[in-house]
Amino acid sequence: MKVKRSLILTLVLMLLMSTSVFAITGKEVMDEAEGVLNEGDTMHALMGMDLIDEDGNVRERTLEIWGMKYNKEEDLSQVVMEFQNPASIAGTRFLQVENKNRGDDKWIYLPGLGRVRRIASDQGDDSFVGSDFTYDDLETRDVEEDNHQLLREEKLDKYECYVVESIPKDKEEAQYAKRISWVTKKHDIPVRVEMYSKKTNEIEKVLTIKQNIEKISGYWTVFNAIMEDKEADHKTRLYIKRNQSGQPFIEYDKKISPKRFTQRFLKQGR
Questions:
Q1: 141-179, pLDDT tens digit by residue?
Q2: Which candidate, 145, 134, 146, places its Cα nearest to that of 106?
Q3: What residues in the chain have per-residue pLDDT under 70?
Q4: Which residues form the Uncharacterized protein TP-0789 domain (predicted)?
Q5: Domains detected in the chain
């Protein structure tokens, strides 16, 4: 009897251990990740963008970015970017405004054209200023747009993560067939995202967050990210630049004029 009881107890413990993995659902993991990304009323940063080809050659760019939560009740934000160098892209400005229950509004100003151009919804998979990010990649995808499944828990480098598969509910409108995200338990931040091609169902691109996530002004902050296009064998690295004292050039909750988030600012730069 003791042996039987021991065996039964062991089986019960094993069952409890196996089901504990699913104590949190895939959707809950992604809800938490979306909440972290939407923290902070304003953000201002100076960033670098490196375009890296298959031979390791690097083309460096510098851009300044401002973000503001313009509707706190609906948790909607707007962001504007301005490229400073090199000369070939200096003065290019981009504005993105989140909307409820529909895609973001996006506009870009190209100095060579001398006018502001709206980015249409069917241009979402176009490259953003020659980088490995598309216009759709720049959006924070609504959690409700996908079905999420928690695949497993595992350690990625130094972080314990939830691994979640996200499949679009509307496959025709989505850019990718699916995404698999490694979301840290500590920060609720995706540190690796695999994006699968709708044509081949193979990995098309991989977004990797360098694992030096730290808090700035109370907010978890990512300092370095790489988007790798597996099909083109090309990478884009985005990172926060540092000031003369070696501190990261990023600040939160500082006053920013709403006039900066307008088409007029895109064209005039003021």
A1: 889 999 999 999 999 988 999 999 999 999 888 999 999
A2: 134
A3: 1-23, 36-39
A4: 78-268
A5: 26-268 (2.50.20.10)
Pairing mode, if any, of strands 115-118 and 146-156? unpaired
Measure the CA–CA gap between 224 and 212, rounded to whole angstroms: 8
Q: Can you read off the two tokens belonging to residue 83? A: 């490229």
What is the spatial distance between Cα 82 and Cα 49, in angstroms, rounded to a whole number?
12
The one-letter amino acid at 89: I
User: Quick one: which of 72, 122, 114 has its CA closest to 93?
Assistant: 114
Question: Rounded CA gap, 150 and 106, in Å?
Answer: 32
| Residue 209 neighbours by CB under 8 Å, 6+ apart | 189, 190, 191, 192, 222, 224, 225
**What's the confidence (pLDDT) of residue 31?**
87
Q: Global pTM?
A: 0.85
What CA–CA distance (Å, rounded) separates 54 from 111? 29
Contact 145, 168 (CB under 8 A): yes
Rounding to the nearest 10 degrees, give the CA dihedral for residues 191, 192, 195, 200. 180
Six token digits for residue 84? 């400073």
DSSP 111-132: TTTTEEEE--GGGTTSBSTTSS
* CA 63, 220, 33, 37 torsion-angle sign: negative
- For residues 125 and 113, the answer to whether their CB atoms sit within 8 Å is no
Vertex 236, ends 109 and 137: CA angle to 5°?
Answer: 60
